[in-house]
Amino acid sequence: MAEPRPSPSQSSICWPVFLSAGFVLLALVLFAGLWPERAAGTFTAAQAWVIQSFGWFYMLAVAIFLVAALLLAFGRHGGVRLGADDETPEFGNGSWFAMLFSAGMGIGLMFFGVAEPVMHYAAPPPGTAGTAQSFGAAREAMVSTFFHWGLHAWAVYAMVGLVLAYFGFRRGLPLTLRSALYPFLGERFRGWPGHVVDSFAVIGTMLGVATSLGYGAAQANAGLAHLTGMPTGPWVQVALIAGIIAIALVSVMLGLDAGIRRLSILNLGLALGLMVFVLATGPTLFLVQAYVQNTGAYLADIVGRTFRLHAYEPSGWLGGWTLLYWAWWIAWSPFVGMFIARISRGRTIKEFVLGVLVAPAGFTFAWMTIFGNTAIQMDMAQDGWLSAAVGADVTSALFRFLEAQPLSAITGWVATLLIVTFFVTSADSAALVVDTIASGGSEENPVWQRIFWCVAIGALAAVLLLAGGLSALQTASLIGALPFTAIMLIATWGLMRALNEEEGTRTGHAPARAPAAADGWQQRLGAALHRPNRVTAERHLDAAIRPALEAVAEEIRKRGGQADLVAGDGRAALAADLPGGARFTYAVQLRAMKEAAFALAGAQPTEASRHRWWRAEVAGAGYDVFGWTRDDIIGDVMAVLDRALVRAAR
User: Which of 251, 332, 474, 603 might form a disulfide with 259, Cβ 3.0–4.6 angstroms?
Assistant: First the structure.
């Protein structure tokens, strides 16, 4: 029988992951909270060591992720669907992009949209042609900003999202990073190696999101101080974190569709409105020209910048900017990657990669051009007024910029509201993701677990803010991303290996062997029209599919090979090491099917009520074997095995 599924009130936590990650995070919080001065000194020393010793590793790893994403999109695996072959995307392109944008960049764009271009303009990177506050510095400032917020950042997200979506939706494995170990370890990925990977994913996510929430709290404090005279300081920012986390809890309880999706659409609408307003009231023609030129200059120099470590002009610039960003994106990648995986089921690899890389990066470039170039032009016209203001208080950069625009009181409040809604969306999404990882990939967890993680993220951000402000948050993100970078490289390798294995074991949409009995077509027609519920599907899994896989496994063992059979929670999987050294897997996963959208017209069903019937799908192939006999299943396994052996022999 399948393993029992937790009820809505039962805990589904994977305790090894929860306890190990929780211990590390609690130790960090206690150290930072009880000895803030010592913690600040330790964080600074650790950051310097990581930058000096592993800066090259961060740069090389992010370059590998970008190349791998492009190869997957335009290579022979681009047509592979993240799910069954007949699945369609759950969310439309508009909603999908809105959620991508809100989860991946929201708070950061608000914080750095004005500040970073102006700071690069006032102090150009070492080794560049531009001198401070010149036209050359302006061009260099925009290209550097594009580089930090462009394709590299989204490639990190895309690779983690692909790993999770492929193994989760196509192979029927848990929706966690540990599933990337499956091509190497088989079903042993569920043991301690998987716990280690997921623990680092939880730690990296918590630290990365805490960094972003710290930025958001500091900027919200600056905005309210500018608009209302509210005092600024760490304790005020902690109070803001507490208030916004309380709002996020409401979104947590509403769920993915009613909460995060609607907030994401609101975020995108407000951001578009603010961006269009600045474009319309600013130097519109110049900004359009600058967008095209900035993009071209970025693409022309992307290879050189990708591998630029400033070896011949050593300075602290790389560690304070590029490496910090790379670590920030990597620390965020479990969170954003899992989130975009969950909203991308049914898309092909090519659709996924191009959507994740091109659309958000294009919007980000437009945002940075409109706000950054306008700010630089304003600074040129006013003898460095804005760059001086940004240097004095970076958190107030956006509001000092808007102050010089028409309708500044209105736009200031819109910007503050946008910061808060981005804050809420990030906290809600992060709680959803961390809960999934800490529950071993379970997506049907009690609400109280997400509430716990949402509160924990806010508490971590608050303690690190009190311990050392934004510098402590930046350092925590940089250090937390280091071990996870190695895990991401292994996961990328695992994805490539799994796709190559799949290519050798399938031929399009058709099953390897259809039932050959005289009444086979009648039996299959009856099964298709029956539309079984979960209980019926699980009975078939236990009565026909699992015995078939057990029989094949036993025969492989008799002939000198090794074979393991894992069954439970709607899945039966055979993993074998054959006598000749080849590796072979065959898995069947029960999948809930939803009624077509037109069948739900006028209704507001819950997510659970939409699961009307179930299929028993062969993982990686997508065809349904419900109703097949034990012998039919054995025949299908042997046909798939034959193809795998033929390919291995070539």
Answer: 251
Would you say residue 603 has pLDDT above 50? no
Complete domains list, the chain, with CATH: 15-500 (1.20.1740.10), 520-597+604-649 (no CATH)
For 564, the 3-state DSSP assignment is: strand
- Interval 493-516 mean pLDDT: 67
Q: Which of 62, 170, 63, 154 is nearest to 108 (CA)?
A: 154
Average pLDDT over residues 464-493: 79
Distance CA 403, CA 397 (A): 10
Mean pLDDT, residues 159-181 taken together: 87
d(CA 571, CA 371): 51
Q: How far is CA 247 from each of CA 2, 402, 434, 579, rounded to the nearest angstrom?
A: 38, 26, 19, 58
- Pairing mode, if any, of strands 611-618 and 562-567? unpaired
Q: What angle do CA 579, 580, 582 make, to 5 degrees?
A: 100
Give residue 517's pLDDT band: very low, low, confident or very high (50, 70, 90).
very low
Rounded distance between C-alpha atoms, residue 87 and residue 97, angstroms: 19
Lowest mean pLDDT among 204-213, 369-378, 523-532: 523-532
Pairing relationship of beta strands 571-577 and 562-567 according to DSSP bridges? antiparallel
Q: Which two structure tokens, joined as six digits, stand for 215?
A: 């930025």
Span of 195-199, 317-321, 543-547 with lowest mean pLDDT: 317-321
**Cβ density class 493-504: b for 16+ within 10 Å, e for less:** ebbbebbebbeb
